[in-house]
Known about the structure:
Blueprint: H1 6-10, H2 13-17, E1 24-31, E2 39-41, E3 43-47, E4 51-52, H3 57-60, E5 76-80, H4 81-87, E6 101-104, E7 117-120, E8 123-127, H5 136-142, H6 144-151, H7 153-158, E9 163-169, E10 171-174, E11 178-182
Helix pairs in contact: 5-6
Amino acid sequence: MANLTAEQLEAGLDHIRAAPREAGLLASIVRRPGVGERETVATAMLDEAVGLVGDNWLSRGSRGTPDGSAAPGMQVTVMNVRVAKLVAAGTERMALAGDQLYVDLDISVDNLSTGSRLRVGEAVLEVSEIPHLGCAKFVERFGEEAMRFVNSRLGRQLRLRGVNTFVVGPGEIRVGDEVTPVRVLVGS
C-alpha cells in the first residue's frame, strides 16, 4: 500500500475540521494485548488502574519514565477517526496507528485543553499535558509525509496525531457511544 502524499493529506483537512465539537461518537476500540498485536472490540472497560482493560499499557511500560514504568498521563490514547482513516488510506490499516480509542470528535487544543474531561460511554477521561506525537512505527506504517502532517504546527494544534488521556471515571464503553467534552461551568 502506497502512503499518501503531502497534497493528499492536506486535502483531507476540511473533512477533519468538520468533526463535531460537542457530541461525537466512539468509532473504534482497539486493544494492544502484546507488542505489535491489535484486537478490535465492540465493548470494553476503562479502569483507573489499568486504563483499557486487556491492553498492555501497564505491563509494557514507557521509555519516558525514569524507572521504565507506565506513564500515567499516557494511559489511553485517543485519535480522531477522520485523521486515522486519512493517514491509513481507509479503515483496514487504521488500527496500526496504535491508539486505543478512535472518535469522531474535534480533539483540538481549542476544543479540549489540557485538564479537560471527555465522557465516553459510562467512563470519563482527562486530557494529559503530555503531547501525543508520532514515532518511528508511525513513520514505518504511514510514511514521512504523514508524520510531518500530524506533527506540523497546525497538526499539533488540531492534535492530528491524537491526545494522551487517563481514566478518572471508570466504566463500560461501546462502539457507537456518544463522546462529549465535559464542560465545567465557572463559578459553580
